[in-house]
Each structure stands twice: as C-alpha cells, then as structure tokens.
Amino acid sequence: MNRAFTHAPCSRPEAMIPKSSRMDTAVRQHAHEGSSRPAFWALGAFLAVVILGGIYLPSNGPCLEPVTYRIGSVDPRFSLGTAEVAEAAERAATVWEEASGRDLFREESGGAVEINLVYDYRQATADKLKGITGKIENTRSYYESLKLWFSTREAEHRQRRDSLSQDIDAYNERIRAFNARYEDASRSGRITEDLYRDLTECREELDKERESLQLRKDELDGEAQALNDLVTLINQIAQSLNLEVVNYQTAGKPLQDEFQEGCYQKEGGRQSITIFYFSGREHLVRLLAHELGHALGLGHVDNPDALMYRINQSESLHPAPEDLAALNALCGGKE
Predict the structure, then answer these.
(1) What is the DSSP letter of 6?
(2) Strands 270-275 and 262-267: what pairing?
(3) What share of the chain is helix, strand, coil (3-state, %, to 5)?
(4) CA distances to 64, 80, 106 from 110, in Å
(5) Is the separation of the CB atoms in 244 and 238 below 8 Å?
(6) pTM (2 decimals)?
(7) By residue range, what is the domain housing residue 87?
(8) Are residues 123 and 266 in the same domain?
(9) What is the pLDDT of residues 276-305, one digit of tens each?
C-alpha cells in the first residue's frame, strides 16, 4: 500500500572537516635526539613522513564517528512518551547500522541531532479522517476519494451555515421587536407587573436562544477550520502527484508545498529532525530511518520503494539496493 508524503531534508548535510594528524610531534621529538648530523637526516625523514601522512592517514569523515542524537519535545497528543520515541529512533538507527556493519548512531543526553514530534494540522487532519477514509495515502485513487469526501462535507457545512444565518436573522428580528415593545412601555410610563414579568421572560428566552446560536456558530467555525486543513492536505497530495488542486474560499494555509511527514534541518550549527505525521509505530520508525539517513549524509534515491526515496511509498524497513549503494558510497563497504 502506498502511504505517502514528502519528508525531504531541509538543508544539505555539510562535509565533515578532517582532524589534523599528530605524527609531526613524534618526529620532532626524534629530531632533537643525538648529534646535529642525525638531526639533519631526521628532518628529511620528518618531511617525507608528513607528505606521506597527508596521503595515507585516515580522516575523520562520514561514518567514522557515530552521529549522536537526543529526544527533544514530544507533543502528548501523539499518545507516545519520550521512551517510546527513543525506542523507535533506536530501531531506525539499527536499520542503517546492520546494513553497514558500523555503529553509525548513538543516543546521548547532549546529542547533536534533536528529534521532536510536532502536532499540527497534518496529524490533526489525519486523526479526524481515521475510521472514515482509512490511512492517508499519496495515490491518485486516494486523492479522488478524499476530494469526494470533502465535497460532501463541504456541502453539508454550507447547508448548516445557511440555516444558522437564517436563524440569526430571525433572532435579530425578535430582538428588534422586543426592544421596540420595551421602549414603547417605557415612554408611556405604564409598565405593569404583568408586562414586566412578560418582558423578563421574553428576554430570558432570547438570551438562551443567543447562547444556542453562539454554540452553533462555534461548531461551524471548527468545521470550517477542519475543512481548511483538509483542503491543504488534498492540495499537498495533488502537488506531489501533479494533480488539480481544490479551491475553497476560506482556506488560509499555503498550498504550494508538498505534504511533509518529517524534516531534517541543519542550520546555524544546530541539527534537528521534526516529525509531523505518522499513522502507526512502524510508520514512525520508517520516517526516522529516512531522516537519520539525511543526518548521516545520505540524499534521496530514485527507487520509490527505497527508504531514501523523497516520498514514503513503502512499508519496508529494509534498505533497497539504491539505499545500500548510497550507504556504501558514503561509508565504504560493510565491515
């Protein structure tokens, strides 16, 4: 089953700078031992070693030191604790470590990459769709079914909104009638006890009606926001598949971007992985594997079934041949 949304890196991983060699220190110590003649020849040996060292000494490049990470904030609306997210991250890291035969990742309290789970309209919309449309998928058939479901809900919302508008107009008319009756009684100076009781009861009824109308309005406002989020979701799926976007007059979110389930970002010396949406624990592990791949230095590959494909279209937690080729190119062969 295709499940999908873009989880592209937010910035390109930078190359690591090799640490300097310490071989020259040992050679200098040797050069100061004995007479000046041996020291002269030792200097020649020193220069040769330094030159050769520049060619053959290993650098502190990718995969030689584990990428450290830590669990940051986890929104409680995901119904996951930090320990569960840490377990998912460890499983995701193991995917790459088993493939390379290396220790590529390590969780530390001060780890360089912070992993956060941010709950926004993406997961909120998905939660509303549970039991109605099933899992969110990045396919044309799912896009068409979601458009149909939206059209039905939007038509129902429009009917309820029109009905509320009519009821508000009727309420306002009764308010005007009440005010006119009260002003007439006040001008005449003849407010009897019965009239006062009648006006009081009428005002209480109008107050209750106003509260009911306000509740209906609040519910419709919530529906309108949910429809806005749904339109954003539909149009981001459409953007991924190069399909027609849906127009909705109250939609307020930008529609030009693809739907991001997660994102790796490196900016200003800080690295972070942010997860916005997942349908289950295995899905979360796969997303973390993708983003940890970016943190390691891997880019996207062309196989739609691969972990490092730009759209999550597979459920497999095993690296595809393209994933392995990219990993070997970055880290070298399996140890």
Answers:
(1) B
(2) antiparallel
(3) 55, 10, 35
(4) 19, 21, 11
(5) yes
(6) 0.56
(7) 67-128+259-331
(8) yes
(9) 988 889 999 999 999 999 999 999 999 989
